[in-house]
Queue: 2 jobs
Job 1
Amino acid sequence: MSRFALQRHYKSMMPLVELGKQVHSAGRLEPALIELVLMRCSQINGCAYCLDMHSKDARAAGETEQRLYVLPAWRETTLFSERERIALAWAEELTELASHEAVSDAFYERARQHFDEEALVDLTLLVVTINSWNRINIAARTIGGSYKPGQHG
């Protein structure tokens, strides 16, 4: 059972909602890449509600089951483009923040080969936003499983 209903506090959540819409509508990140990043961060954080949501939205947008199944082991497959691999690594670095040395200068330079500055800022904001939603849903004990594709889009 959830602790509190997010719908009841939706007005308080609007800055996060608007930030997510801004990143999506900017058009600098491909929809498939966005869903992969949202899924990967949610996997790391263990947010069942967000995993339910983004796996359904990804499939509805045409993502393959195979890529979703192997996403936790994306480094060990050839199913992801170099741009997607950089985005997934960026998402993991920012989600885990193992140290203040996360996102090294060398990795940043590698990422800049695939993302211009605006797109990299959007990718960063996407990771920040989903990590916030993961934490909110985990704190609220939001139950996963009932999401319908596009429900929050």
Job 2
Amino acid sequence: MGMFVISKRFNGEYKFVFTSRKGKTIFTSISCKQKSDCELMIAAIKENIGLFAFTKNGTASGKYFFRLSKGGLVLATSRKYSTELRLKKGIDEINKYAPIAELLDFSENEFAFPDADAVFLEAGEMD
């Protein structure tokens, strides 16, 4: 099953990614000023992925990617794929798993994985 993950960018804005059931990022959203905007986009994708367009593109180096859009507004860009078949599999995975995907929110944490030294200091295990 796929997963939506909300996080904060270094500039303080929010974004979300959709990951595959194997944990690979399939697409990354545009930046949002409010976390609620991410939540609304995720809800819309989950409720009716059929209303969104997948526009396939290629890079000069021969890689493939897509943009997810609705009403002409690009909402997300996929990772780069080595073949068109892999790109298609990425889109298929979104169509199949987005409606039932879980949501993780790492936006409230400064660091999803805190510095190990800080954890040890708090536990009194380092001097």
